[in-house]
Fold this protein.
Amino acid sequence: MRGILFALVIFGTVLLLAFGIPSEAVTRTDEINVSVTVAQKTMIDVTPTSLTWTNVDPGSEADSSYEANSYGQIQIENIGSTNITGVWINNTYPASRPFGSGTNASYDAGNFVVLSRQSSTDYMFPNRVEYNASNTIVYVSVPTGWYYGRFRNASHEYFWGVDAASGDCNVTGRVFRIGITEHNQSATGDADLSDGGTDTRYYQFTLTNAPDNTAWGYASINVSSSKWQMCVAVKNTCDEAMFYRWNTDAPGGSSCAYAQNFTTSTLTPGSWVIANVHVRVPYGVHWGTTGSTQGKLTVIAQSSYSN
């Protein structure tokens, strides 16, 4: 629209008044420099923060269909500012033999958890702990003076024995044996771990004193015709055995060939790794919610930087 001009004569002076004439818009720019120095900080976020499996039968493996929120995986994310060069995991376990206690409070759900890498179905325990048998198992044979127990893996049970005749099972040279064929509800499995039996079928390994925890002896072992490759650590008292894969902090974990970080490459800031998660509940677990406290998984991340 054109502007409208009005002319006024005031005391001999002509004034032009302009109405509606648009003025020119003017912009100007300037800059400010921004710089941020990010501190070296190693941080991780693990999600979800809790897992709950329900109505799991003894001697079975439970996946996401039994988990309260249908979770079948956990995500471990680098939310810090440093490269994470290794991630490993440990689980809680009962402080004494829970089987035969007659109470669900004696068990620890953390001791049931198995994990695999995202693209794998190779589920393994972070560090499952077993105790020797408190009573005689009539169909198991071991040399005189040996302690024995079971490696419980859902419905798969493998009998193990260790030379406790001289005590001090943390001493290098002690012998550890584990049966090849599983025991389950319908099969005895390899239960003869003796020296001269006609049906002896077991793997035999020699324990080495753990350099990172001298109260234990350890060995790299395989179970069920190499189906499961893992590490075992036996306490000096010979009555406690730890079977592990994902916990490099376990006794002997710094040296055992099968102890592994869960990550296979550097976890850069903002990236993450996914773990598949199941639980394997052994035979003979008392019904109800296990444990006087909740079981736990602890995820440990290592960086080459110091905060």
Summary: The chain has a mean pLDDT of 92. DSSP finds no helices and 18 strands in the chain.
